[in-house]
Amino acid sequence: MEPYTRPFWESLRDGTVLIHACESCDERFFPPSPICPHCHSTDVDWAETTGRGTLYSFTRTHATATAFDDELVIGLVELADGPKLLAPIDASYDALEIGDDVRIEAAEYDVEHDRGWLEGYPFFAARPLD
Amino acid sequence: MQMYIIRSGLLYHIVPDTTTPAVAGIGTVPNGTHSVPERDLALRVVRDALEDASLELSTVDGLYMPAPRPWTPQGFFSTYLLHVLGLEVDRSLEVSTGGTSGGNAFHSAVSDIRDGTVETALVLAVERNSIVETTGPYFDYILKSFDAEFESPIGMTVPAAYAQSMQRYAYEYGIDRGDLADIVVKNRENGAANPNGLFDESPSRDDVLDARLIADPIRLFDCPAPCDGAAAILLTADDVDESSSPQIAVDGTGYHHTASHFLMSRETSITELPAVRRAANTATDRAGVSIADIDVFEPYAPFPHIEAIVTEELGLAERGRGVDACLEDHTAPDGPFPISPSGGCLGRGHPPMVTPLLNYVEAVKQLRGTASTQVPDAGRVLTTAEHGHVNGVTATVFATEV
């Protein structure tokens, strides 16, 4: 059995952010799942996005798990296509404001954190758009 | 007698409980650092609760507790404890649902007493945070509570989740970040008066706003301080009257979990906590009262904006006005709806598995008239416990028996 989310990571490596679309209720959702969390239909499929969205909220940590830098800028991104997702923000904390235009893009993952079967795949980050 | 309520235009049939559980006894140790095994803390609070209730240990036929944290040296804790106590029970369980673990353990005991499965339930919680390195292993453990594939690799922390709801709350409602500090000061002042609390004094508003950053804009005193603690509560069927302490009825319980995990809400803003509203409504309906009938609130509110939002969800303040409720002293011990006169987890320290039970203990003390910051003539108290970013909530109504 294949991990259900593998197409997300394969596509991300090729530069496209995928989410999920429900053919029954037409909602878009994330994370990808074979059951729509809005109407519980199983008539769901992958949908391409531009990765573009706006910053819904954000923070900067000053201490976290061992493998990570103490200071991490993290935010919630509301994609133009609907769902929100949490992402590292590739920007200085002081430069950010809620509502900023950002884009989710593939990002090299160099933290010594065990991602299991995803070792070797890129992760993603939100980058501000000018 | 048939009982009905009308909600949202629909008629609901209420099946009355045949038995209303009562709190027969309580036992706690002060929040702090305890350099003895969890076993010793557990046995101490069990002994004290039995003494408070004037009950023999042999009457206990149910044991309910939050599952001890993974760094607790003793595994299979409830089984081990039954052996040490020489106690046979008809039900025992360890619950693991984050911050609601103690609440769900307590509610399970309440259900079992209501339906007659057990007659005397021992609800117990014990936790030592002084034995875990907060700089490494604790954060590694916390990381696993986020989406392991899409969120944990970011390096998330619990304050980093609450920081984003604080940031958004201030943005949506134009909240002055400085005003949130007054909620911390109110709770720390109440906590300083609580002999079982962690702190002897309160920081000033400026101290709160100048403290070191934890996750912007959350600073040190905005966070509940992890500590060691333990509590035991004995519940009995109300027709069993063997105790010498005044009995307090558990009049209503409610639980709700929204379809969200930490910040991943869909239709609802992260500045709303609908599970609080739903659980509290269920608990007050079951108790046959409304929020206006509650004299004291002891919620599980681990950050100041969460207390403000809980105030809104309970209908005590309009959306976005929860901070004003504190600024205008409405939530003070002598205000119209006192919130956390015990200090709550911000003011008295926070062993998360124990905190829900400490809220129950404070409810019992208010109703006995023995609280450290007593609300005069308190007759009903509502407490909550929450899971994660308050998407799962237990609510409990306690009342003096009349």
Q: Brief description of this entry?
A:
The complex is a heterodimer of chains A (130) and B (402). Chain A is mainly β.
What does this structure look like?
The complex is a heterodimer of chains A (130) and B (402). Chain A has one domain: OB fold (Dihydrolipoamide Acetyltransferase, E2P). In chain A, 6% of the residues lie in helices and 37% in strands. In chain A, strands 6-5-4-7-8 form a five-stranded antiparallel sheet, covered by helices on one side. In chain A, a hairpin with a 4-residue loop joins β5 and β6. The model of chain A has no long low-confidence stretch (mean pLDDT 97). Chain B is 33% helix and 21% strand. Chain B has a domain of 122 residues: Peroxisomal Thiolase, Chain A, domain 1, CATH 3.40.47. By secondary structure, chain B is α+β, with helices and mostly antiparallel strands. At the A-B interface, β4, β5 and β6 of A face α4, α5 and β7 of B.
Q: What is the share of helical residues of chain A?
A: under 10%
Beta-strand residue percentage of chain A: 35-45%
The count of DSSP E runs of length 2 or more, i.e. the number of strands of chain A, is 8
The CATH class assignment of the domain at 21-131 and 227-237 in chain B is Alpha Beta
Count of separate DSSP helical elements of chain A: 1
The strand line-up of the biggest sheet of chain A is 6-5-4-7-8
- Give the terminus-to-terminus CA distance of chain B: 19 Å
How would you classify the quaternary structure? heterodimer
The CATH topology of the domain at 21-131 and 227-237 in chain B = Peroxisomal Thiolase, Chain A, domain 1
CATH topology of chain A, anyone? OB fold (Dihydrolipoamide Acetyltransferase, E2P)
Q: Biggest sheet of chain A: strands, sense, closure?
A: 5 strands, antiparallel
Total individual domains of chain A: 1
CATH superfamily of the domain at 21-131 and 227-237 in chain B: Thiolase/Chalcone synthase
Domain ChsH2 C-terminal OB-fold (chain A): 46-105
Organism (chain A): Natrinema salsiterrestre
InterPro entries (chain A): ChsH2_C, ChsH2_Znr, NA-bd_OB-fold, Thioester_dehydratase-like
Protein name (chain A): Zn-ribbon domain-containing OB-fold protein
